[in-house]
Specification:
Blueprint (H helix, E strand, L loop, with lengths): L5 E6 L2 E10 L3 E6 L9 E8 L2 E12 L7 E9 L1 H15 L12 H19 L11
Antiparallel strand pairs: 1-2, 1-4, 2-3, 3-6, 4-5, 5-6
């Protein structure tokens, strides 16, 4: 998520602002300005993307999400077609940029470099001070 991404939440006919910490296709986590909402509460989220505004029905889940005591997890329940398309496009864009924490697939060069690193570690362990090479008689 871009840093300090704000979203407007609606629950129990009240609107409040939160800072989104993480988003995925199934939900995310947020630090809410008014504090946590009771777990199981159904509400709505509205946030902007470069592709337009996204509106979704959500369920508030547990607090302490992502190891942050004040962060509250939420799950997407439903999203209209236009919001769904905008959101999926935005997620795809984030995954192809530096804004994603998705682990990228290892390329052949990455695999080769890891093999070389492992070999260097192994050799350096053999050559470490205090080790004496064995002599052949």
């Amino acid at each position: 998520m871009p840093q300090q991404q704000r979203a407007v939440f609606t629950a129990d006919n009240q609107k409040f602002v939160g800072t989104v910490q993480r988003l995925s296709l199934t939900g995310g986590s947020v630090v809410l300005a008014k504090g946590p909402i009771p777990e199981g509460t159904v509400g709505e989220i509205t946030f902007g993307t470069v592709f337009g505004k996204v509106n979704a029905h959500i369920e508030f889940l547990h607090t302490g999400a992502d190891g942050i005591p004040l962060a509250q997890a939420f799950a997407f329940l439903a999203m209209d077609d236009v919001s769904g398309k905008r959101f999926k496009t935005a997620v795809a864009e984030m995954q192809s940029s530096d804004l994603s924490d998705v682990v990228r697939k290892q390329t052949p060069i990455d695999t080769a470099l890891e093999t070389v690193r492992g070999s260097i570690r192994q050799l350096s362990g053999m050559l470490a001070p205090g080790r004496r090479p064995t002599s052949k008689s």
